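Reproducibility note. Readers wishing to regenerate the assembly model reported in the main text can use the exact inputs given here. Chain order matters: entities are listed in the order in which they were concatenated for prediction.
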Amino acid sequence: MHVELTDTEIIRRILQGEQALYAQLVQKYQQYVFTLVLRFTDNREDAEELSQDIFVKAYRSLADFRGDAKFSTWLYTIVRTSCITFLRKKKLDTTSIDNERTLTQLENRESGFNANTIEQKSKHAMVNTAIRLLSPDDAQLITLFYKGEQTLEEIGRIMGLEPNTVKVKLHRARHRLKEKMEKHFSYEVQDIQSD
Amino acid sequence: MRYKTYKVTSYLYFDDPKVNGMNTEQPMELRLWDYIDGHCSPTEKSAIEELLATNREWQQKHRELLNIQQLLSSSELEAPSMRFTKNVMDEIARYHVAPATKTYVNKNVIRGIGAFFITMIIGVLTILFTQFKWSFGAGSGGSDNLNQQIDRIGIDRLNSFNYARIFNNTYIIVFLSIAVISGFMLLDMYLQQKKQPS
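Running the prediction on these inputs yields the following structure tokens for the assembly.
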């Protein structure tokens, strides 16, 4: 009978020398990490390379994982710091969308984008595309909350914020996402709301 | 009537968009999101459920937010390439897991080194102070005369102080030798650590 190992148990055995077990952790979290990284990078190649670096970094620091938080929370903290370092190197603007200058830059990024060019008009594609139009912080926050299975406290730990601040930021991110969807996917949004 | 409503049921104040021209969307949305996420108190939850049962605007906004909630919850994760796991495992095969910092940074050793140097400093200062002769001549006048005499004596003593006595002292030489040797040993350890491949 196959007993699924917990993350803590897997880590304990990896530290005892069973390096091959790390593949289980990679397979379990690769999509989450890749999705989070894609919120910060412009292309899949950079996202994949950065995601691989993150897993290697996590492996090399495995002994420092104390187990007082979930492994996913610890891993996503590494994701966030690595992404911010990556963006600093690429000299992209990571300030909040509340900054008017950033808002102007983001609007310019969107100007070349036309909802009618999307071939696949499924709801999932629409949502993912709309999330990509958000600032990296907003996109990562939404992904951590909805797909990363992180609580407000855990997200606060990852992003270095108080839980109440996370709650307010999440609300604003959702509000902006709604605006993006209404602006770029007005027909699809109307279809959904009429359901 | 409006003011009476405001006093008795203050949450309804925000429902009237005509009141002070306020934007009533934000508070309603924030409260509804708290309700949907399950973050509101039982009192707030009952209040919102009552509003949802009776207020059409709240019902419509709730439906709208639930649609967004459902879209976000059902959004798909992006998948990396098929070789992703293999690439990571190939990369980590070159490394060993670094030991936890607590295993090679022994705080007791650091405390010991710190205590040693503090002891040395205290020892040097003690020996220095014991070289002074802290006796003063009797004062003849008021406090001003006494202070002047003390100042003169102090300056005389400093000028006549034999510094060579300190550096010829055996204890001082031993302390300084140990300090210099310890310093070289620590420098060597630091340089060895830097040389090792990361």
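We highlight two features of this model. Confidence is low (pLDDT under 50) at residues 95-120 of chain A. The two ends of chain A are 45 Å apart (CA to CA).
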